[in-house]
Hints:
Layout: H1 2-19, H2 28-46, H3 50-74, H4 80-101, H5 109-129, H6 131-144, H7 150-166, H8 174-184, H9 188-216, H10 230-245, H11 249-266, H12 273-297, H13 305-321
Helix pairs in contact: 1-2, 2-3, 2-4, 3-4, 3-7, 4-7, 8-9, 8-10, 9-10, 10-12, 11-12, 12-13
Amino acid sequence: LLFILLTLSGLVTAAIALLSLVWSPGSLLMLVGILMLSNVLMTLQAMRLRRLYVGVQTLAITVFVGLLAGAHIGHYALPIEHLMEWATLIPALVGVALLLLHKVQMPNATTLRQSLADLMQHMPNMLSATAVMNLFTNALPLFLASILIPRDLGLFRVATALIQAASSVFPVSTQAVLVAFNREGEGAPKLYASLAPFALLYFSAAALVLMLGAYAIPHFASYITLAACLPMYYYAVLAERFLTSQHALRTLRITNLAVCVVALLGLLWVRTLYDAMLHYAAGMALYAGVLSLIIAARGQGARNTVWLIMLCPLAVAFAASHPW
């Protein structure tokens, strides 16, 4: 899986490099780092190496904070784009090394070619069912590269990476949740009804702890502004897994494509870091809210969940406009 994903990333990078001849998407090295890191994390998750998954994400944040603190203490200038390049490339390369130590082997040419052919065949369906998550976790920084200044782009990338990393601390991994939903069969709605409220409360508490941490250490407050997105981010992941187990892929694809269109149109109004954070929060809230209503309409969830989800972007707007 790792080598297949890296091959696809190479193709994407080559396409972006050609596109950069007529439009500047930002740092290509940063793009390579983001793609490699995403591939490593997906491979670790697929192999159920959860500790390594959390470790690599923690390393990415640690490298960023360490370099930032070193530049501040040493009184030397470190451009944010260079900071982001190191903060993505170092954990990505460490992750590749860890996977190789776990006996991940390069497939032969025939296997690689067949796997790529199968992946290309199923990719449209797979991407359309998870388009919103792909947009907000991977593609959005690329679109914002031509809008935000490098410092704000780096800060936004770290803030969103923190959301992804924090979502991994739930006692049950998302892969295990999907397996459990599929295994339960007709009992999946009952399992979802138990997991969804607990996940919302769990991540609401986690978001509160992070916000209090920002109050205690104001220097890092900007990086924790999006912490209020944690409940709806994980809820959206949980709802995706549930609808997939219920074979509602057509509904999921339509929802993803519709929300992506709205999110891309919303980029026309993004001018500052504050706008970008509101865009992220509003887009995730829209997606999680629509999924909540879809599940409620199927008689498998509570409609009042959507009200808690809608509070998240309001909390982000308040935190972003009222510095600690």
